[in-house]
Specification:
about 200 residues; mainly alpha; 4-stranded mixed beta sheet; globular
Length: about 200
């Protein structure tokens, strides 16, 4: 009477040694989060994708069931790792800490960075920060506050990238989150603003 249960237990024990689950960085979710936050900070937020649009490819689970892993093995794996678990989740950017950082970034942008970007004094960099491009492009009243504005902006960015990684349970994702935000700042830069590419050369949009 207990033979089916014994067989199932044996299968589970056998498969336990050859099932590998790899958690991948959810790049599409990170890009969506970056688009939202950067758009809010710069005032260029766009509407979310319409319902029914094609979802990003799942990239969260990889399974190696060994040779001959069909039939019962597949059914058991589907029970252990439901197919829905492979769908890429949204990235959590709604914690109070992240929202507070975003609010500070928006205020700093409106008060300090926006006029400096328009004047070509500063620009976005390939590592997700801002940097001084040409201090001489600043007016005399602006010059005294440029270094402080840039340093403050870069502290906020470092805090943001680390906070998003931690809020999603993977502090080690911080460099990848930073890289995606770096691309997004440049992508959403307005015409006439400057950015520094990976070679260190300044470019104008």
């Amino acid at each position: 009477m207990h033979k089916p249960l014994i067989l199932l237990a044996a299968c589970l024990a056998l498969l336990a040694g050859c099932v590998t689950i790899n958690v991948y960085f959810p790049a599409a979710a990170a890009q969506k989060a970056a688009q939202q936050i950067v758009g809010n900070v710069l005032g260029t937020a766009t509407s979310p994708a319409p319902a029914g649009s094609s979802p990003a490819p799942a990239s969260s689970t990889s399974v190696n069931a060994g040779s001959g892993g069909g039939g019962l093995g597949v059914a058991v794996l589907d029970f252990i790792i439901p197919p829905a678990a492979a769908a890429e989740p949204d990235m959590n950017i709604s914690t109070p800490g992240i929202q507070a950082i975003e609010a500070r970034m928006k205020a700093n942008f409106e008060q300090n960075l926006d006029p400096l970007l328009k004047a070509g004094v500063i620009g976005f960099t390939a590592n997700g920060n801002v940097a001084v491009r040409d201090l001489n492009a600043a007016s005399l009243p602006q010059r005294a506050g440029v270094s402080q504005a840039v340093a403050s902006a870069n502290r906020e960015r470092a805090d943001l990238y680390a906070a998003i990684a931690s809020a999603n349970g993977h502090p080690e994702w911080e460099p990848k989150i930073r890289a995606i935000f770096a691309q997004t700042w440049i992508q959403k830069a307005r015409p006439g603003w400057y950015y520094r590419d990976s070679s260190g050369a300044w470019q104008r949009k």
